[in-house]
TrEMBL record:
Keywords: Cytoplasm, Cytoskeleton, GTP-binding, Microtubule, Nucleotide-binding. It is found in: Cytoplasm, Cytoskeleton. Residues 295-430 form the Tubulin/FtsZ 2-layer sandwich domain. The keyword GTP-binding applies. PANTHER family: TUBULIN. GO terms for cellular component: microtubule. One of its GO terms (biological process) is microtubule-based process. Pfam families: Tubulin (PF00091), Tubulin_C (PF03953). This is Tubulin epsilon chain. It comes from Takifugu flavidus (sansaifugu).
C-alpha cells in the first residue's frame, strides 16, 4: 500500500501547474535593475536548492529548457535542472546595457527571443518612446508578451521595471504596460518606477515623468515608486557605516546591497549600489511566490488588499535591514528594531515620513525564522502610533516566507498605501510647471507624430486630480491622539 502511494506521487509530480510571474524590463535603468534582480534570485535559489531539481520555487520566475528536445521545450517541475531561462522580456532602444548583460555572467539566462533592442535611443523624449517606438515595435512587443505568457500554465501577475525620467523607460515602458492591459486585462500589473531627483541631468525629466504618471495611474494595478535621491541617501548612509562611523557596525563584503556588477560585464558603476537596493525590493516582494512559508502572500492579494480606490495604487516601500551586520544571529530586541525601522523615514525608498501621514493600508512581508507571534506582537506595538483611515483601522496584510535573503537571518519589506506620496507628486508637478509655463523644450515633443499639446495638459490634469484625492483624504483625517504613555518593563 505504501509503495503504490509513492509511485502515484512521482507520477503526478511533473503535472504540477506552474504559477508564473513574467518580468518586463524597459530602458537602461529598468534592465540594469532587472539584471541585478535575476542575479540575486539565482543566488537565493542556489543557496536553498541543493538537489539540482527544477521545483515549484524556481518555476515561478524561471523556465527549465532542455536543449536536447527538438522543439527546445521546457522540462516539468520535479525534473533535473537543464538550462534555466528567466521569465523575462528585455526591451531597450539602445543596445549598450543589453549587450553588457549578454557578455556577463547571466548571458545563458536569456535568449534572443526575449530581447528587443534598437540603436538610436529615445533622446530623453517620452513621445519618441511611447509614440514612435511604441508604434514601430508594437507587433514585436505583443508577440514577445504572448510568447512569455504561452510558457506559463497559470499567469499570476506581470512585473514591469522602468525609470520615469528618460525617454525609453518612461515612454516605451508605459506603452508596454498598456499593451499588457490590452492583451491580458485580468492579470495584475505591478510596476516598479524609478523617479528622477530634482537635480537630474535630463532637463526634460519632469515632462517625461508627468506624461508617464498618467499612464501609470490609468493602467497599473500597483506602482512601487522609488526616488533616486532616497537611494543616494541610503547608499551614503551605508558607506558611512562601512567606514566605522557607528562603532561595532561592520558591513560584510559582497552583501546583496554593496556588491557590484550583479550579472553585468564591465567595471562597477556609481549607480550599481542604488540598483541593488531596488533589486532587493523586487527580491522581497516576490519571495512568497518563489519560496514556501507559513503565511505566504499571494501577489494578487497586494492589489486586492492594499488598493481601496483604483487610482490610489502608489505603494511606499521600505526595506530593513538595509545592510548585513557582522552579527547574523539577531536577538529579539533587534528583531523588534527591524519592525520599527520599517516605519522610519530613513528606510523609505521615497523621501517621505509615513508615520506623519494617513495610512489606507499596510502590508508587512517578513522573511526568515520569524514566528507569527512576533509579527502580531510588533503590529500591536506599532499600531497606536500609526494613523489609519477611520474605516480601515485593521488594514494590515501580512506574509511570512521561511527563506531569508542570503546572508540575513531575517528581513522585512513594508508596503504602505499612504498619503505621504503626495509631496513627491506635488514637487514633480512644480518642476513640470516651471518648464511648461515657458513652453520650454515643447517643440521636441510636438514634432513627434501623434503627439499633441493636449497630451501635456491632460497629463497635468491627471496629476492634479491624483494630488487632490490624496488631499481630500488628508483633510478627512481625524485628529490623531496617540495612546497614553506606558511604563517600560525592563527585559
Amino acid at each position: 500500500m505504501t509503495q503504490s502511494v509513492v509511485v502515484q506521487k512521482k507520477y503526478y509530480l511533473p503535472h504540477v501547474h506552474e504559477i508564473c510571474n513574467p518580468c518586463f524590463s524597459v530602458g537602461q535603468c529598468g534592465n540594469q535593475i532587472g539584471c541585478r534582480f535575476w542575479d540575486l534570485a539565482l543566488r537565493e535559489h542556489a543557496h536553498v536548492n541543493k538537489e539540482g531539481l527544477y521545483d515549484e520555487a524556481l518555476s515561478s520566475f524561471f523556465r527549465n529548457v532542455d536543449s536536447r528536445k527538438s522543439d527546445g521545450g521546457g522540462c516539468a517541475v520535479g525534473e533535473s535542472i537543464q538550462h534555466l531561462k528567466a521569465r523575462a522580456v528585455l526591451v531597450d532602444m539602445e543596445e549598450g546595457v543589453v549587450n553588457e548583460i549578454l557578455q556577463g555572467a547571466l548571458r545563458e539566462v536569456f535568449d534572443s527571443a526575449q530581447l528587443l533592442t534598437d540603436v538610436s535611443g529615445s533622446g530623453n523624449n517620452w513621445a519618441v518612446g511611447h509614440m514612435t517606438y511604441g508604434a514601430t515595435y508594437r507587433e514585436q512587443i505583443v508577440e514577445k508578451l504572448r510568447k512569455a505568457a504561452e510558457h506559463c500554465d497559470c499567469l499570476q501577475c506581470f512585473f514591469i521595471i522602468h525609470s520615469m525620467g528618460g525617454g525609453t523607460g518612461s515612454g516605451l515602458g508605459t506603452r508596454v504596460l498598456s499593451l499588457l492591459e490590452e492583451e491580458f486585462p485580468e492579470v495584475s500589473r505591478i510596476v516598479t518606477a524609478v523617479y528622477p531627483s530634482a537635480d537630474d541631468d535630463v532637463i526634460t525629466s519632469p515632462y517625461n515623468s508627468v506624461l508617464a504618471m498618467r499612464e501609470l495611474t490609468e493602467h497599473a494595478d500597483c506602482v512601487l515608486p522609488v526616488e533616486n535621491q532616497s537611494l543616494v541617501d541610503i547608499v551614503n548612509r551605508i558607506k558611512r557605516m562601512a567606514h566605522g562611523e557607528k562603532p561595532g557596525s561592520v558591513i560584510k563584503k559582497n552583501s546583496t546591497i554593496i556588491s557590484n556588477k550583479g550579472g553585468l560585464s564591465g567595471a562597477e558603476k556609481p549607480f550599481d549600489a542604488m540598483n541593488n537596493i531596488v533589486a532587493n525590493l523586487l527580491l522581497n516582494i516576490t519571495s512568497s511566490a518563489r519560496f514556501e512559508g507559513s503565511l505566504n502572500m499571494d501577489l494578487n492579494e497586494i492589489a486586492i488588499n492594499m488598493v481601496p480606490f483604483p487610482r490610489l495604487h502608489y505603494l511606499v516601500s521600505s526595506l530593513t535591514p538595509l545592510y548585513m551586520l557582522a552579527d547574523v544571529n539577531v536577538p529579539n530586541r533587534r528583531l523588534d528594531q527591524m519592525f520599527s525601522d520599517a516605519f522610519s523615514k530613513d528606510h523609505q525608498l521615497i523621501r517621505a515620513d509615513p508615520k506623519h501621514s494617513l495610512y489606507l493600508a499596510c502590508a508587512l512581508m517578513v522573511r526568515g525564522d520569524v514566528q507569527l507571534s512576533d509579527l502580531r506582537r510588533n503590529i500591536e506595538r506599532l499600531r497606536p502610533s500609526l494613523p489609519f483611515v477611520s474605516w480601515n483601522k485593521e488594514g494590515w496584510k501580512t506574509g511570512l516566507c521561511s527563506v531569508p535573503p542570503v546572508g540575513h537571518s531575517h528581513s522585512l519589506l513594508a508596503l504602505a498605501n499612504n498619503t505621504c506620496v503626495k509631496p513627491t507628486f506635488m514637487e514633480l508637478k512644480e518642476r513640470f510647471t516651471k518648464l511648461y509655463r515657458k513652453k520650454a523644450h515643447l517643440h521636441h515633443y510636438l514634432h513627434v507624430n501623434g503627439m499633441e499639446q493636449s497630451c501635456f495638459s491632460d497629463a497635468l490634469g491627471s496629476l492634479d486630480a491624483l494630488i487632490e484625492e490624496y488631499q481630500h483624504l488628508d483633510a478627512t483625517k481625524d485628529r490623531f491622539i496617540p495612546d497614553a504613555i506606558r511604563l517600560s518593563i525592563a527585559s
